[in-house]
Design a protein that fits this description.
Order of helices and strands: HHEHEHEHEEEHEEEHHHHEEHEEHHH
Number of helices: 14
Structural class: alpha/beta
Shape: globular
Radius of gyration: 21 Å
Strand order of the largest sheet: 1-9-8-7-4-2-3
Helix content: 40-55%
CATH superfamily of the largest domain: Type I PLP-dependent aspartate aminotransferase-like (Major domain)
CATH topology of the largest domain: Aspartate Aminotransferase, domain 2
Distance between the termini: 26 Å
Number of domains: 2
CATH class of the largest domain: Alpha Beta
Bound molecules: pyridoxal-5'-phosphate
Number of strands: 13
CATH architecture of the largest domain: 3-Layer(aba) Sandwich
Strand content: 5-15%
Amino acid sequence: MSMQNPVFIPGPTNIPDSVRKACDMPTLDHRSPAFARLFKPAVEGVRRVLKMDQGEIIVIPSTGTGGWEAAISNTLSPGDTVLAARFGMFSHRWIDLCQRHKLDVEIIETPWGQGAPLEAIEKALKADKAHQIKAVLATHNETATGVKSDIAGIRRAMDAAGHPALLFVDGVSSIASMPFDFAGWGVDIAVAGSQKGFMLPAGLAILGVSPKAIAAMETARLPRTFFDFKDMLTAYARGGYPYTPAVGLIAGLAHSIDLLESEGLDNVYARHHRLAEGVRRAVFAWGMAPYAASADLYSDTVTAVRVPEGCDGTALVQLAASKYGMAFGVGLGEVAGKVFRIGHLGMLTDAMVLSGLAVAEMCMADLGWPLKLGSGVAAAQEYYRGTVPAMALAAE
Ligand SMILES: *Cc1c(COP(=O)(O)O)cnc(C)c1O
């Protein structure tokens, strides 16, 4: 029996039992045909989740951060310019990674709580007549603030400027939980990790790479060895890997995609939206609000809850862990203490979310925050009971 509560951090997420079992396998020779048989469905599944029509899938034993580094080091050269907006901890860290790789980052400083600033991006691209900017970096879902950005809008801005830069998207906390359209948005590299929407343990960086990004490797001079796409693709063509793959995680990935597709990706996205909306109803009933500046920016995978003046979001997270054995996310960087975060992605049901909201309320009451116990839970209950999907009813 497991006495562990579900986690409400925005990654790593809860792992379905069947995914854990799929990862647990005897040693397999990764140079044997058995590995190729295991790997192929995982790769093909990722391709469908990303909605790719061409290009390559790269799966590296790493995490999302390694995925960023792989994107950069395979396609760019020292001194190249990239364009990025900074509006949270994850967009900040990607910028930092680029700077440490000696790239020249043109930063659009954007208030935290906002999303990618489309007009400013278009303006910067139009001003770059010489096409110095080699890549535009976009954080699809800023996990620090619970803000979703409009990637299709960034593509439109790039097209409106007639700019040939590559488009790199961090989808670590959105892919497999929120709609993603690699082909439709003209994405050149999408970065995901195993431990968020894919419901696996941490340990894989998962990338979709367009033919244009592959072509950029020909002239890209940043050093790369472990992350070299070329070594990967050469080895893949022979059904193998340039080094030892994380075999268990790859088996788990194929299974997790089976789960997502048997639920139906659109249903997965609708489930996340419904769970997120219930959380937001609770937050408003508490007299608080999401940190995201407007409703169109609300993330369906994580809500950063702006706490009342004089209250400390980090204290709530610490109390939830120590007293109730439940994990929420602390505020990072600029919003440390000012928010706490409720992750609502991966393997979650409405009943599980209600348990998280109930514990958050107990912590608030314990800390003497102004709130009536049950107020947020009731608001979420009202929303959930009125929006049970037809599929769940039909299953009875
Ligand atoms: C979690 C996360 C990352 C970092 O991924 P790691 O797997 O921890 O390296 C990057 N970007 C976003 C948006 C994330 O949510």
